[in-house]
Amino acid sequence: MKVLFINHFPLTGSGSGVYTANIAKGLTRKGIETAIIFPENRKEYEHYENIKLYPVFFKNKERISGVNQIDMNFPCFTTHPRSTFNFKDMTLEQKKEYEQVFYKKISEVIKEFKPDIIHAQHIWTLAGIATKCCREYNIPMIITCHGTDIMGIQDEQKRKENWGTNWANEAAEYASAIVTISKDSNELAENILPKTKGKTKWIRNGVDMSVFSKDDSIDKIKVLNSLGIENYDKVVSFVGKLTHFKGVDVLLNAIAIYEKANILTIIAGDGELRDLLQKQAKELELKNVKFVGNQPQSKLKEIYNIADCSCVPSRREPFGLVAIEAMACGAPVVATNEGGLPDFVTPDVGILVNVEDAESLAKSVTKILDGDIKFDRNVISNKIETLYSQDALINEFIKIYNET
């Protein structure tokens, strides 16, 4: 079997990108051939063994020599660490170019790779463009709904526009199955996009345990020094995009409550709000908050392993892959009772708090740091490996591919 993946974002820096790469890697370990079409805005990008990659190059700040680039950055639903350009900001000419370039790329890859099935990410424009190609070449398709695509459709409904929604409807009508990553995303998809009804199937999101796992050999002082940080007794982590729905501003307000001289909070990630968030941290007179920017997965593993707890203060989180990654490394999680997070942040692995509630967030972090609530890091990591490892879930995708 050959599976062609199509994603709206690069394979690093976004949940759907990591999700796509993880499934492709899991399939290759099962002897299934995979290829991925995705946007990219830098010449050097991560490669994966035995996976064929077909990037579509976009222009960021500088032109990449030796490749053809679309003269704009890749568009997002909200933001990405390497792009703050939004789908809603695209001109008619940019939309047409986007459609033409990806239609050409998908058609070329279909002819070269000859996939048995296409697995598109997001019920949105590229899934719709892929539908057009699938009809021409008689190829079945499934789609994973990641939640941000539904947010895009809701945004278009508010603005009385329908460019992405039209493509989404065409894709949902053609697709043999719609995979959702949480109960919340499943309900949203069926309510917001009626053509998905009767096609949805919830498959838990998975983590690559070969990348994220508990490792007692990791030295906290060495990790902190590698980030240019001195040693602290206690470490709290946040990993994610610095955008509004991630709730980092709420976390900063919580830090103002729980921060002490011996408590460090690491904020790993980037995005359109970084300057505003750093300004907020300064206004709150936070002493021990370190913005460390985007970090490779190997470094994130180290950060999770040295963290006494990891925070996911999102206002809306379709799934929350960073929470799974943190728990795979043994870190308990303090997360909001929203979106897909309640599906797996249970009392044995973490604490749920209400959205926008900085005081409850701070109290929960303090209880963990002070030992008032204790978690067994081995139990946390073992639970994730049993229920959420990519290898444990990959057979569910293979079943859907075969049925399709």
Q: How is this structure best described in words?
A:
With 404 residues, the chain is α/β, with parallel strands linked by helices. It folds into two domains: 2-206 and 390-403, Rossmann fold (3-Layer(aba) Sandwich), CATH 3.40.50.2000; 220-387, Glycogen Phosphorylase B (Rossmann fold). Helix content is 42%, strand content 16%. It is built from 14 helices and 13 strands. Strands 3-2-1-4-5-6-7 form a seven-stranded parallel β-sheet, with helices on both faces. Strands 10-9-8-11-12-13 form a six-stranded parallel β-sheet, sandwiched between helices. α13 packs parallel to α14. The longest helix is centred in the N-terminal third of the chain and has 22 residues, at 92-113. The two termini are 12 Å apart. The model has no long low-confidence stretch (mean pLDDT 93).
Q: How many β-strands, per DSSP?
A: 13
The CATH class of the largest domain, by name, is Alpha Beta
Describe the biggest sheet? 7 strands, parallel
User: Which blocks of ≥5 consecutive residues have pLDDT under 50?
Assistant: none
Write down the overall mean pLDDT.
Answer: 93
Q: State the order of secondary-structure elements, H for helix, E for strand.
A: EHEEHEHEHHEHEHEHEHEHEHEEHHH
The percentage helix is: 40-55%
Q: Rg to the nearest angstrom? A: 21 Å
The name of the CATH architecture of the largest domain is 3-Layer(aba) Sandwich
In the CATH hierarchy, what is the superfamily of the largest domain? Glycogen Phosphorylase B
**Outline, from the CA principal axes?**
globular
